[in-house]
Amino acid sequence: MAGLAFFCAAALLVLVARGAIPPPDEAARMARFVLHNCDWGALATLSAQEGLRGQPFANIFSLSDGPPGPLGGSGVPYLYLTDMEISVQDLEINSNASLTVSLAQTPYCKKHKYDPQNPLCAHIIFCGSIVKVNDSEAGLAKKALFSRHPEMESWPKDHNWFFAKFNITNIWVLDYFGGLKIVTPEEYYSVKP
């Protein structure tokens, strides 16, 4: 087992040296990198639904922090939501949520034969709240989401879609052996992916 951990760590260091992913000692940059390279995440709310009230409830949502490419990410997870969606109904009662994104959804982990639970298959857990974006931020949210999810533009207008963002208050990074790393929102927003 120790030999496998050493091999995985050595492989990760080679990738870092090539600039493929941030090094393990740059947790804030890793958080930005993972979010920017993910197109969806698992959003967990506290259910307001009859029979589930107060229970954790996770659901998959498309998201984007900006257009694809190395310079496109703002670090803000934007979402396109409707009040018809069950998790959005939960958020209307309690806007607190957590959002998990993982490199497991990219080719990276499969290419390196990392199980999604392997720490080298980095995942980030954000805690915070969901808020509707104001008019001045709606254009940015629209560009971020529609550039990655063009199908959204044709979704039924009668569903009253709106742009929202995840207001980040806490960040946990699992990208290497040794446990979670805590990143502050200030550290997170001060780096580029």
Automatic annotation (TrEMBL):
Signal found in the keyword field: yes
Residue ranges of every copy of the CREG-like beta-barrel domain listed in the record: 22-190
Recorded superkingdom: Eukaryota
Matches recorded under Pfam families: CREG_beta-barrel
Cellular compartments per GO CC: cytoplasm; endomembrane system; extracellular space
Keyword terms of this UniProt record: Glycoprotein, Secreted, Signal
Location in the cell: Secreted
Signal peptide region: 1-19
Family: Belongs to the CREG family.
Name of the protein: CREG1 protein
Organism this protein belongs to: Nycticryphes semicollaris
